[in-house]
Amino acid sequence: MTRRALIVVDVQPTFCEGGELAVTGGTAVAEAIARYAAAHRDRYALVVTTQDWHVDPGRHFATPPDEPDFVDTWPPHGQAGTPNAELHPALADLAPDASVRKGQYSAGYSGFDGSTGDSRDLRSVLRDAGITDVDVVGIAESHCVLHTTLDAVREGFGARVLTDLTVPVSEELGVQARARMAEAGAELVPSDAA
């Protein structure tokens, strides 16, 4: 029997317009995810959010005089304890069953790299709830959604990416990410077909 979880990846102001590492379309995706989750909560046995929650991620942050290369180094973002690291206000009514914070002391691109407040990793959260399949949404498709999806497949979960509920850093990187996820065995479907 299929038990499905919704994983909402890094829907935080830091990645939306006006944030430190803004992705064009981030705010619209945050609002669309909120509407989808409110309308379809009954489809999911579990809803999990992930957040970049950087304390001291080392070389992940470019520090002056070094400029970020936007591949391995980035401007400071998702800094633990700041308003922009919290969940986006559009998700105020989401009430997730579990929240995973990642990247405290490293890059932490995948939700599977993080842990909950009671120190459980995402794999344990999903397995403890008997989850067999996950739907992944969030920001950015080309980075943290990509790595979370690849890890979900690697961990043996059936994985779908709801393509209209995520946005890449650039269209080129989005095309590459979708190809990698599909090649790994993830399904790419619009939310109205989920």
Automatic annotation (TrEMBL):
It comes from Actinotalea lenta. The lineage of its organism: Bacteria, Bacillati, Actinomycetota, Actinomycetes, Micrococcales. Keywords: Hydrolase, Metal-binding, Pyridine nucleotide biosynthesis. Belongs to the isochorismatase family. The keyword Nucleotide-binding does not apply. The keyword NAD does not apply. SUPFAM superfamilies: Isochorismatase-like hydrolases. Its EC number is 3.5.1.19. Pathway: Cofactor biosynthesis; nicotinate biosynthesis; nicotinate from nicotinamide: step 1/1. InterPro entries: Isochorismatase-like_dom, Isochorismatase-like_sf, Isochorismatase_Nicotinamidase. This is nicotinamidase. Gene3D superfamilies: Isochorismatase-like (3.40.50.850). Residues 5-190 form the Isochorismatase-like domain. It comes from the Bacteria. Pfam families: Isochorismatase.
